[in-house]
Design brief:
The complex is a heterodimer of chains A (398) and B (119). Chain A is an all-alpha fold. Chain A contains 17 helices and no strands. In chain A, 77% of the residues lie in helices and 0% in strands. Chain A starts with a helix and ends with a helix. Chain B has a five-stranded mixed barrel. Chain B starts with a helix and ends with a strand. Classes of the chains: A mainly alpha (398), B alpha+beta (119).
């Protein structure tokens, strides 16, 4: 049994590292393939081991997936908001530091999730019905706060609404598969890549800089991340992207702190979705759905096994991320960044019809245009999250 | 390309694209599928099916929330479904359903977004 657990963890770390590094490849894809072939695997092992593989892969992925976001400008839907602060630090020669901030946040998020699990198990069934009723109100209020705290309110509102309409159309487009991929790639990744190419951005030599952030700042960030993650982790239709938006409304968060926050939220939301599976019997993430299939009557002992495995895997993923970030820091200076952007752009364009079918290209083009418009008028990228917020607000209102 | 021109172009493309996507989302639907072809591989994808309702159940969650559970069959098989609006489906009704394939406690089901009663 111990050997099986060890192997499941090891294979999970490898799978999570691969899915984390390659833009567009999601852990849900691997989990789906595993589930489809589960009858074969269950001939060799038991469902708990398969669940351990999934959580190991998920944990490793949440650490590693900030690397392509920072160094390549190619995020996924959970790391999209890291792209701008991460890219800014990359242009200052501090790409490694940007990744280190996210993995610090990720590891602290892991520890927090384990420590707070008993509290969530006890309170979730009580607060969940109330939260469900209030979610639309919470999201509307936060969206309005975000807009009214922006200097150019009308422009921010305009971008938010346009993004919201795009999100509504895309998420309800029944012929489109995996709608989030072209939507988020177009809103956040391709505009950055196109503008970097057109402006002939040059990446300076990367330095392995120390992280300089106070303990007081970290405690503040963790408090905000617990609040925002716990709001979204137990509800359908909302995830780490919305948690980051909610968190960013509270106090002015500095760039470095924002990266720690994103790392913490990324891990917290995923792990709390497993806690939700036990506490309210509802899976709240794609991978939690699959763990729920393997362990339909998940026990408290199963949950703690998964959380402890996640903590151990997190330690390894922390160091793997830093090693990979160092390698990327060395390699990125040796390549022509302009043509690297072009190559990644081409890769994402080719990947879109493969993942989403040909309609995905229409969404990608439209979202890219909106993302470029947002960048050129100088409005914060966070307003593009209207693409997810508006559909979710309407979902909870109807 | 000058920034001002790029700004105008990006705005025009985004507005045109958004309205085109909204139009297509409202007017295009997948072709009909046999129920037997709906498997785990279709998870989170939209499908369109037609068949006969063989079982229904209404659940009132509270004053404003309502679930209609049903089972639909065609010549190839049957599938369970859920609809969040009140339609008062009856057994033996012929219907067309557009919905998303989802998983509920290990079983494939269809979360209907549109139901059209044929007879």
């Amino acid at each position: 049994m111990i050997l099986e657990i060890f192997l499941a963890c090891l294979l999970g770390i490898i799978a999570g590292t691969i899915t984390g590094l390659i833009p567009g490849v999601h852990i849900n894809l691997v989990a789906t393939l595993l589930f489809i072939n589960s009858a074969f695997f269950l001939g060799f092992t038991n469902p708990l081991i398969l669940a351990i593989f999934i959580i190991s892969m998920t944990t490793a992925h949440t650490f590693i997936d900030f690397i392509p976001s920072v160094f390549l400008g190619a995020p996924n839907e959970d790391t999209v908001l890291s792209i701008l602060p991460g890219h800014r630090m990359l242009l200052e020669g501090r790409g490694y530091e940007a990744v280190k901030l996210t993995v610090i946040g990720g590891f602290l998020g892991l520890v927090l999730a384990c420590v707070l699990t008993p509290l969530f198990i006890f309170t979730a069934p009580i607060f969940y019905p109330l939260l469900e009723k209030m979610m639309a109100f919470i999201l509307i209020s936060l969206s309005l706060i975000l807009i009214f705290t922006e200097k150019r309110k009308f422009a921010a509102f305009f971008v938010f609404i346009l993004a919201g309409l795009l999100g509504l159309g895309t998420l309800n487009f029944s012929l489109l598969k995996q709608a989030l991929f072209p939507l988020f790639t177009g809103l956040f990744a391709t505009p950055l890549l196109i503008l970097s190419f057109v402006q002939n951005v040059k990446i300076p030599k990367q330095r392995i800089t120390k992280v300089d952030i106070s303990k007081k700042e970290i405690i503040k960030i963790l408090g905000v991340s617990i609040f925002s993650s716990s709001l979204v982790s137990f509800l359908p239709g909302v995830g780490s992207a919305q948690a980051a938006v909610i968190a960013s409304v509270f106090k002015k968060i500095k760039e470095k702190s924002f990266l720690v926050l994103l790392g913490a939220i990324n891990t917290l939301v995923v792990l709390l979705s497993f806690v939700a599976l036990y506490a309210i019997k509802k899976p709240r993430s794609g991978v939690a759905v699959f763990v729920g299939k393997f362990l339909p009557d998940i026990t408290l002992s199963n949950l703690w096994t998964l959380l402890i495995v996640s903590l151990i895997v997190g330690v390894f993923a922390f160091f793997i991320s830093l090693i990979l970030a160092k390698e990327f820091s060395t390699i990125i200076k040796k390549v022509n960044y302009k043509w690297l952007c072009f190559a990644i752009l081409l890769f994402l364009i080719i990947l879109t019809p493969i993942i989403s079918n040909w309609w995905g290209l229409l969404v990608l083009l439209t979202a890219t245009a909106l993302g470029i418009f947002c960048s050129l008028i100088g409005i914060k990228k966070i307003f593009l999250m209207g693409a997810l917020l508006l559909p979710v607000i309407i979902y909870y209102l109807i | 390309m000058k920034t001002k021109n790029l700004l105008k172009l990006s705005l025009i493309i985004s507005i045109f694209g958004i309205f085109l996507i909204l139009f297509l989302a409202n007017n295009l639907e997948p072709n009909f599928s046999d129920i037997s072809n709906i498997t785990q591989k279709e998870l989170d994808n939209y499908v369109k099916i037609k068949g006969e309702i063989i079982d229904t159940q209404e659940i009132f969650l509270n004053d404003s929330e309502y679930l209609e559970l049903f089972t639909i069959k065609d010549g190839s098989g049957s599938i369970e479904g859920v609809f969040r609006k009140r339609m008062s489906l009856q057994t033996n009704q012929q219907v067309e359903i557009l919905g998303k394939v989802s998983d509920y406690k290990g079983a494939i089901q269809i979360e209907a977004s549109k139901i059209k009663i044929i007879s």
